[in-house]
Amino acid sequence: MLKIWKNQSLAFQIMLTVSALILIPVLVMIYDIFFASAKDEMLLKTKEERLGTMVQTTVKGLNDVLSENQTGFSTLATNEQVKILGDAFKTVAKPLADANPGVRLGLYYPKTHDIFVYGFLHQYRPLSPDEIKQRQKRIFNEASSGLTAVSATKEPLSRITGSLGDQTFEYLAPVIHNDELIAIAWADEQVHPVVSQSRRFSLIVRYLTLFGLIFGTATALYVIHNLASEVSLIKKGLIRMEEDFSVRLPQMPGEMGEVVQAINNMADSLKEKKRLEEELRRSERLAALGRLVTGVAHELRNPLGIVKATVQVMEGEYKKTVPGIEEYTKVICEQINRGNKVIQELLDFGRPSKPIVRPTDLNGLLDSVLTFTHPMLRQNKIDLNKELAPDLPLAAIDADRIKQVFVNLILNAIQAMPGGGKLTIKTLAENDKVKVCFSDTGGGINPDDLPRIFDPFYTTKDEGAGLGLSISYQIIHMHNGKIWVAETSPSGTTICISLPQSAQWKGSVLLDSENTGH
To answer: What would the mean pLDDT of 414-443 be, rounded to a whole number?
Structure first.
């Protein structure tokens, strides 16, 4: 059974659970209405029939007496009418009251508001005349509403009166003679406390059941609404996560929160796995490309050397005989030098040397780089803003290689701001890393270009081989560091570098350099 239940969908389980919660109070209400209430009604019906028989017997006896009167009842004086009714009621009602302990029989004469009572609801001691009058007055007050109703309708009436815990059942009937209301006879009997309590309990149960039904339904709807909303959020988040691994689901309470946390953790793991796979592919591509580039660069360097030497010889031999040859040889040498520069970049990329790592002050290294790059910044109308952190921890780096990275990033920033702008260089310590950020106010990087900016030979400029950022990436990677685009927009770009602090450097490169005396 449990296996079948677990195999059902979540929606089916919720619907079945809610149906069960609603069905229980409904069944209780049905039982109370059709069975418990019916039982109480049957008890009261039995009581009504018994008291009704006694009252009807009394009314019949009174009518018989009134019919036997030779002079006519309506022609008699009021006091005589009261006396005849009182004697007749005593004759008929007293034997009934004596034979039915706990039943009280009464007769009300509307003209004079006189009442006659026989029998007690409770067992009383003999009463004095004053106590009898007080009792009759109290009984009249208790029955007055019923007497008024019967006087108005001239129809029998049965009802329950009294306060909770002290209730009586009344049956009232009019005494009609010659189509005229002469008197009202009634009988009442105390309702057993058990019946009263049962009726009270049934009433409480009905209200509680109704409240439970409403509360249970509202709670179930609230829970279902929350659950559906959370499931919808998770579903939408997963759809967005398929397109972008950086998206994370919002935190939620309860078990759904644990599910969301597990999904977010899984997304973090997948993102890290994807990053490592990309790193591996990039490293494999760089290694293969490096071998190819190194071979090509060697093959190109030798012919260029021969051409340059030949040009220099031609310039020396034909300088006097061929006027203006210096102008042509100068252009050739400039292009040869440019080619040699590209070849050197290819060699640096394809066969990077191991970094010679020493504790280095990055603030000082940046100052030295800015010493010879500052004229270029000023020439291109670029304002420099330095935010160098004081007491910056030393970084474990090869100063010459990192200097090359700084120069590449500064040159890229200059090219990104052809009309001038502002370059901000910021250093700070973060955990066990030393961080350097270069922020320009250029036009930003196209989002489509972001995944490829560190790829070799990829460039969006008209000049250059597209190796600057690729070589920088390789150098930083060799230092166990990290380089990334922290922010880019039409108002500028920020590229950050993080390098290990000197005290944290445990790599074999440092040990090798120390052992070799570097």
So the answer is: 89
